[in-house]
Amino acid sequence: HHVASILHERVLQQRLQRERARLTEAQSVARVGSWETDLATFDVAWSEQTHRIFGTDARTFQPTHPAFMELVHPDDRAAVDAAFVASTTAPGEHAIEHRVVRPDGIICQVEERWRVFFDDDGHATRAVGTCQDI
User: Going by DSSP bridges, is the β-strand pair 124-133/32-38 parallel, antiparallel, or unpaired?
Assistant: First the structure.
């Protein structure tokens, strides 16, 4: 029984790896990245494609909300920050277009779409979204 359980676990891990690879490929083709923010800890995770869009190196750049805001064009920061803060009290989907100043100096236009999830008490717990180089 123990061996069967281990084999089953390996099969599940292989499926998960294949699905992750497919998602990474699909995001690359679509030029759409994904991200998630834990609103209790403000831990942030970016997909490989999100790093490509923002011109950051996943091995050295730690995505945080302040680090993200530093990449947002200075003229767009207030609107991006206001949209995100407002979304933490408003259920539903949210979107904003803004400019990004990549570390190499290139300015690109992105569209961010996200949804905030709430616990049973109505507190915002996490935000999950996408970004697309438009």
Answer: antiparallel
The pTM score is: 0.79
- Which helix H or strand E contains 126, and what residues bound it? strand 124-133
- Mean per-residue pLDDT for 49-59? 95
Structure tokens that stand for 105 in this block: 């100096």
In angstroms, the CA 57 to CA 62 distance is: 9
| 93: pLDDT strictly greater than 90 | yes
Two tokens, residue 21 = 């690879």
Tokens (6 digits) for 134? 């438009």
Instruction: List the one residue out of 55, 37, 42, 48 whose CA is nearest residue 110.
Output: 55
Three-state helix/strand/coil letters over 59-70: CCCCCCHHHHHH
